[in-house]
Amino acid sequence: MMVLPLQTATGNAMVVVVFFISLLVSIVLSFVIGLKGVRSYRESHDRGIVLLTVGILLLSGVPAGINVALTTLTAVPGWTVETTVNLIRLFGLVIILVTIYDQ
User: Fold this and answer.
1) Where are the transmembrane segments (predicted)?
2) What is the rounded CA–CA span in Å between residue 45 and residue 86?
3) 57 φψ region: left (φ > 0), alpha (ψ -120 to 50), beta (else)
4) pLDDT tens across 73-94, in order?
5) Are 52 and 92 in contact (CB under 8 A)?
6) Percentage of the chain exceeding pLDDT 90
7) Does residue 20 belong to any structural domain of this protein?
């Protein structure tokens, strides 16, 4: 059986605080972009805008949030978390590519 080391943020307390604040800001900005995309879709009813918004959310905010949630709230192994996050990002990229080449 393979034992994986725990993923922890170590170092100066200020570095750890800055790391978590930057992670939180990236998640919030991703969802602000998502909100703007939904508003644009309501005005134009263009399917491409909503698909691009979903792709951006799956590429940035959702994986970061899931990574934090799974590593903090569950005892899921690290490789499972990384695989899940990478598959979500891949799905986001596929949606963006389909959106770009579909139009």
Assistant:
1) 12-37, 49-71, 83-101
2) 30
3) alpha
4) 888 888 898 999 999 999 999 9
5) no
6) 26
7) no
In a domain, residue 44? The reply is yes
Using pLDDT thresholds of 50, 70 and 90, give the confidence band for residue 61: confident
CA angle 42, 30, 73 (to 5 degrees): 120
In the chain, the amino acid numbered 8 is T
Burial of 25 (0-12, 13-18, 19+ CB in 10 A): exposed
Confidence at 8, pLDDT banded by 50, 70, 90: low
> Which domain, by its residues, includes 47?
33-102
In a domain, 92, yes or no: yes
User: Rounded distance, CA 84 to CA 93, Å?
Assistant: 14
The reported pTM is 0.73
Please state, as a whole number, how many other Cβ atoms lie within 10 Å of the Cβ of residue 11: 9
Distance of CA 49 to the CA centre of its chain: 18
